[in-house]
UniProtKB/TrEMBL annotation:
The organism of origin for this protein: Henicus brevimucronatus
GO biological process: ATP synthesis coupled electron transport; electron transport coupled proton transport
Function: Core subunit of the mitochondrial membrane respiratory chain NADH dehydrogenase (Complex I) which catalyzes electron transfer from NADH through the respiratory chain, using ubiquinone as an electron acceptor. Essential for the catalytic activity and assembly of complex I.
Domain NADH:quinone oxidoreductase/Mrp antiporter transmembrane residue range list: 107-389
Reaction(s) the record says it catalyses: a ubiquinone + NADH + 5 H(+)(in) = a ubiquinol + NAD(+) + 4 H(+)(out)
Protein name per its UniProtKB record: NADH-ubiquinone oxidoreductase chain 4
């Protein structure tokens, strides 16, 4: 594990050398494939080195982090083209990747907490430094304070856990602790990070003001930190979970339905995709809170799938924004006439977003439906509504943006760059290829 940390640390000086943008990008892709080929599929932790190691769950999320961070640089051509402090930009991406890598590979809950908080800093700088509107300052404050406020109880909970057990080493934690306050302390930070409905208001704000790279990493990896944290701490909270989890399942399912209705009223492309993330992660949270084998594995599967799908949709929204200068659906309509070659990609990623086969989202959502319905039949009503409206807002996004008269009435046509087609292909292809190896997601327990 340390060899990749050293590679990332030594990559940092290259970020500040002029015209090394493409070299850094190439090295990140190379590291992704190196990491992928070095996987050891065992039931325990492998690649142990000091406080770092990985199991199958860490492997999938670290690989996703590498892939999304490499794609972020590919998507941010405008930063390179207009010389918006591009050395500092690449440094922020590499530093963020380093934080995420350390977070997912930490073997101690304290080091996990340290890097979990550390990933907030480069994300904040990406939003403040390369965001589009003056409101990005407000979005940064939302992001910072929502996360910090919820994270302090987590730190206190970890200190208390160390007092009780004498260790924060993840593979050794097998106690079942049954205190309500302790239970809330340990999961609150992760619920905000997922984000659960009612503590989700920072997410649309941050997405709308962030540059495309910020949106990609937020949707692709940072929302998964919450799910990963819950999967790690829930073996300590089984007894408390049996008593109190129905609250979170209820909030997640009702919230998923309400957020789906909010999606149908959005006119901002990025806000619509951001709210759809809240709905999807709500279902994942509901399945995870059932504490069943199906629920855990399917929540993990949906996290990987959503990371690729949502990131690709933000790339598409940015491609339209760069040409039309607006994210409003009232202006971004009739894109089939304006950018006919992009319509296929809109269709493929929108259909993946509504969990159509053969995308990996389908595998995750079927497993989650299975786990939640087996937990209680009453959830069937909300699940039907969430599934239906999930399809409704995905079709709304596709049909409203692609069909209809062009807003300005000007008959012009724009092609995408080869870089953009490659970028979208590299989101969509793994999303549909990974379903062929769906059983791997079921191995980690």
């Amino acid at each position: 594990m340390l060899k990749f940390i050293f590679m990332l640390v030594f990559l940092i000086p290259l970020c500040f050398i002029s015209n090394f943008w493409w070299l850094v990008q190439g090295i990140l892709y190379f590291m992704t494939f190196m990491f992928m080929m070095g996987c050891v599929m065992t039931y325990g932790f492998s690649g142990l080195s000091y406080i770092f190691g990985m199991d199958i769950m860490s492997f999938g999320l670290i690989l996703l982090s590498f892939w999304i961070c490499a794609l972020m640089i590919t998507a941010s051509e405008s930063v390179y083209h207009y010389k918006y402090f591009n050395g500092m930009f690449v440094f922020m991406v590499v530093f963020l990747l380093l934080m995420l890598y350390c977070t997912f590979s930490s073997l101690s809950l304290f080091s996990f907490y340290l890097f979990f908080e550390g990933s907030l800093i480069p994300t904040l700088f990406l939003i403040l430094g390369w965001g589009y509107q003056p409101e990005r300052l407000q979005a940064g404050v939302y992001l910072l304070f929502y996360t910090l406020l919820a994270s302090l109880p987590l730190l206190i909970g970890l200190f208390n856990l160390y007092l009780l057990t004498g260790s924060l080493y993840i593979p050794n934690l097998h106690e079942n602790i049954n205190y309500l306050f302790f239970y809330l302390c340990l999961i609150l930070a992760f619920l905000v990070k997922m984000p659960m409905f009612m503590v989700h208001l920072w997410l649309p704000k941050a997405h709308v003001e962030a540059p495309v790279s910020g949106s990609m990493i937020l949707a692709g990896v940072l929302l998964k930190l919450g799910g990963y944290g819950l999967l790690r701490v829930y073996k300590l909270l089984m007894m408390s979970g049996l008593k109190y989890n129905y609250i979170w399942v209820g909030i997640s399912l009702v919230g998923g339905f309400l957020v789906s209705l909010v999606c149908l009223r959005q006119t901002d492309l990025k806000a619509l995709i951001a709210y759809s993330s809240v709905a999807h992660m709500g279902i994942a949270l509901g399945g995870l809170m059932t504490m069943t084998y199906w629920g855990f594995c399917s929540a993990y599967t949906l996290m990987i799938a959503h990371g690729l799908c949502s990131s690709g949709l933000f790339c598409l929204a940015n491609i339209s924004y760069e040409r039309l200068g607006s994210r409003s659906l009232l202006i971004n309509k009739g894109l089939m006439n304006f950018m006919p070659s992009m319509t296929l990609w809109w269709f493929l990623l929108s259909s993946s977003n509504m969990a159509a086969p053969p995308s990996m989202n389908l595998l995750g959502e079927i497993g989650l439906l299975n786990s939640i319905v087996s937990w209680t039949w009453v959830s069937m009503v909300m699940l039907m509504l969430v599934s239906f409206f999930s399809a409704a807002y995905s079709l709304y996004l596709y049909s409203y943006s692609q069909h209809g008269m062009i807003y300005s009435g000007v008959y012009s046509c724009s092609m995408g760059y080869l870089r953009e087609y490659l970028l979208l292909f590299m989101h969509w292809f793994p999303l549909n290829l990974l379903i062929l190896k769906g059983e791997i997601c079921m191995l980690w327990l």
